[in-house]
User: Fold this.
Amino acid sequence: MKLKDLEIFVVAPPAPGWGGRYWIFTKLTTDTGIVGYGECYASTVGPKAMRAVIEDVFERHMQGENPENIELMYRRAYSAGFTQRPDPTVMGAFSGLEIACWDILGKARNRPVWALLGGKMNAKVRSYTYLYPDPDQDAAEFWVNADMTAEAAAKCVRQGFTAVKFDPAGPYTIRGGHEPAMSDISRSVEFCAKIREAVGDKADLLFGTHGQFTTPGAIRLGRELEPYNPLWYEEPIPPDNLAEFAEVARAVRIPLATGERLTTKAEFGALLRLGGVKILQPALGRVGGIWEAKKIAAMAEVFNAEIAPHLYAGPVEWAANIHFAASIPNILMAETIQTGGAFHLKLIKNSIRWEDGYIIPPEAPGLGIEFDEDVARAHPYTGNGLHLQMQEAPCDYRHGNRFEGGAPAKA
Assistant:
């Protein structure tokens, strides 16, 4: 069995667009006719350029190869051009192709992917979601309104969620870390207080920041959040200086989480050795794929750290996350888009089940999903924005900061 053909789908989810402006799916076909699907989570270049990268990685390192030889193909891509170091764009391309290989291997053996990864350690996977506005709510107001988000949190708990995530702490800028405005600290405290009051002890609070603070700024904010006992303080500083996470961890009594912007075991290994972070959030469509994520989970075990796979993408990465999560002993929880996401589920013909706060690992062969190519082709991305984008304007200390959480405005 050899890898023969590649097709790429760049899909734009319809409004409200939870999961980003577009999703990049890969379809691999073997010379025996078996088809596998994957997803790339890399947004450093636009879809046109990313398509060329995916095609190059496939043609250069994978076409004509046995899909079983995942380690060999990974080493080719990782080492390409005399690099042998983490590259989020190349690894993002390889990740989507690697996930498709696992889908193929499961279908060839008539077994779900989790069965090829050591078997099912977890019969169900605890899930969490961001807090999103309802269709009839003012989205711009929702992201900065603690009463609206607290109401959404209570609704999630009634659905069965035992953890909810929110990120009220200010702008995501290209400028590296900044000191939080006092108004952003006040809003963050208000969010934690009102959401904690709304959910009581029925759900964990997951406080997101997307890496926008200096080390002392992260410490100032984190200390104000301690009374509300969040389960994690997510990426409080930019991810390009791993040593500073340990400084924040020493000063703040909230567990730190990070990893959605990291790639390969090299970066996660450095993070673990430096200390401070005990919750790792790999995005399987960027990190190097399922096999690389398994290695990261094994390393994390040695450091008594847990895994919470990140998801702000489409349903194929979600499926990969679930098989990975089902197979490891140190899973904490896995992100979902609400209870699966209406368009996410439509793209895979509702082939993944979410029940009472948990995702049920599929039993069907491969990733266990039914990817609907007709739906994918009917929703092409025609914009010129990236999957996610950061603002250039600095933090506004005088007039306050309003920002868009969840999905950005269409571009």
User: Anything to note?
Assistant: The longest helix spans residues 88-109. The radius of gyration is 20 Å. Residues 154 and 198 are 6 Å apart (CA to CA). The mean pLDDT is 96.
